[in-house]
Amino acid sequence: MMLTIRRIFRCAAIALLPCFVSAAYAATLFRVTCDQPDARYRLGEKAIFTVEATEDDGSSPKGRAHLRLDNFGDRIFIERGVDLAKESRFTVTGEMDRAGFLLLRIRKSGSEQTLFGVAYEPEKLRPYQECPKERS
After folding, report:
1. Which phi and psi angles does 2 have, rounded to 5°?
2. Averaged confidence pLDDT in the chain
3. How far, in Å, are 21, 51, 64, 77, 115 from residue 47 at the CA level?
């Protein structure tokens, strides 16, 4: 009889183990939107990113995330940490004074990096190198 009860508890523990493991490794999901529907801006115009953090298991986000707003390169406009328990919804504002792209990167340890970009007058961008002429 005692052996049967031990087997029942072992089976129950094994069956419940995935529930505890998935709760321990819940990933944070970041939903990012901007204030322009087409994500295109004029030079000097402010772009407002709205970020909403949620856990994939439906629980409230915890921990810290790191965000960075840059020009897809070495020009960093904002770089800071965010306490997700206090700010699960927040905004990030940036602007550019020359044609190009503004990139928001958000990362929390244990979650994939989220990227969201907007364009500043992309029609003014020119190739860095001339395109080769076709040979006949």
Report:
1. -65, -35
2. 81
3. 39, 13, 24, 12, 15
Average pLDDT, stretch 99-110? 92
Q: Would you say the C-alpha torsion 69, 94, 122, 98 has a positive or negative sign?
A: negative
Q: What residue ranges in 35-99 does DSSP mark as E strands?
A: 40-41, 47-55, 64-70, 76-83, 89-94
Phi-psi region of 110 (alpha: psi -120 to 50; beta: other; left: phi over 0): left
Q: What distance, in Å, lies between the first and last C-alpha atoms of the chain?
A: 90
**Number of helical H runs and strand E runs in the chain:** 1, 8
CA distances from 14 to 11, 26, 47 (A): 5, 19, 50
